[in-house]
Amino acid sequence: MPPHRPRRRRLRQPWTCIPLTTTAQRAPGGLVLHVSGELDLDSAPTLESAATAHLGALPSVLTLDLSRIAFIDCAGLAALLRISVHASYSRTALLLGPISPSVARLIALTGDPFHT
Prior knowledge:
Transcription Regulator spoIIAA
């Protein structure tokens, strides 16, 4: 009887994430920060740094376009809340929108922490 050879297992593809990118665009009365990718524990500091840098210019309105966010977790939500605090200290109105379905779902689950 031939020796037993273990079956070869197919290796799974490694988990790939979509890197977070930000692009700023001047808009009437303020600035729009277009955000795309995954907003999670790894990428939240990137968004915070970008938003804080643009808040340093003291725009009257900062709009976060989150329509291209593929995934957001609680760390991403915490980053958005910290950006909201920074905006209020710099007397900048922070607007969220448009937002992706994943962002909308997380905001709905948390009771809309951005509604004042």
